[in-house]
Amino acid sequence: MTPTMRCVLLGCAGVGLMAVSGGFFSVASTQNADSALPVVASASVPFYPRTALLAHIEGVVKVRVTTDGERTSAANAESGPPMLARAAEQNLRSWQFEEHAPTTFVATFQYRIDEPGLCNVGNSTVVMHMPSDVQVSAQGVHTCDPVSPIRSQQDR
Question: Which domains does the chain have, with CATH numbers?
Answer without folding.
Answer: 4-154 (3.30.2420.10)
